[in-house]
Amino acid sequence: MRVQRTDSQKPEWEKIWGSMEDSVRERDVYFIMDEIKMDYLLPLLPNAGRTLEVGCGAAHLSCFLAARGYKTVGLDYSSKALLVAQHNYLLTNVEGSWLVGDGYQLPFSSDTFDVVLSAGLLEHFANPIPLLSEMVRVLRPRGIFYADIVPKKFSLLRALDGLRLKKSTLYEASWKKKTIITFLRKVGLQNVTVFPAGVFPPLWVPIIARLSLYRVLHARMTDLFKPLILKLDRTQIAEYLGFYYFCQAVKGGAT
Ligand SMILES: C[S@@+](CC[C@H](N)C(=O)[O-])C[C@H]1O[C@@H](n2cnc3c(N)ncnc32)[C@H](O)[C@@H]1O
Question: What are the chain's domains?
Fold first, then answer.
């Protein structure tokens, strides 16, 4: 089946990554968030294997996985994003591979990867089914699917973002847990787990947000409140105030 699609968001992603100074070494709230995602995810993964991150951007999660011995592949349609990803691999002192490619037509045979993941990708598509189907196609039977989804919704972390002048034109879907579960089941995934998470303190606070000292303080605050943040994950409070949905599932079929 031919997939109807447009690349209208690609120039904006190229612009974002072209001006991005990203470092996996900086222990900011996003680093802490990735640590938490990994703590949830690692017990569900095989001990070793090949992973594919679609729309990898700076490839933060792939860096974490590579550091734990997984053979990681990062794919993004922005070549500028992949430069940031390579820089992060160098900083983390890990090896992996990456390629410029389109999530709608992944350049891999079916049933190739032990783990297929995406972080902050799917919410940028009004209809994520074609992308999800491709991700599931290249996942081996009984392989692990993981995605975190950051829909357009209120969250404590972004509560004061509206006061910022800078606006993104990137599309963000406003899905709830139930809709996400429906999508994942529709592409044949089984044992689907989706929960709201990430009740982090507000990041963008007027005036002091520009100070790098605030980012350091924010990370300290996040570390301080981490036990509470973890307790709120999966609850109704996270549904209303959380930043993202943790989504995990298994591909059907025999190994
Ligand atoms: C929010 S960013 C992901 C950030 C990433 N998880 C990280 O840790 O930096 C979404 C990424 O998806 C990529 N992307 C969007 N549509 C895509 C497509 N159709 N194929 C491949 N990559 C795509 C964008 O270029 C962007 O880098």
Answer: 10-154+167-198+242-250 (3.40.50.150)
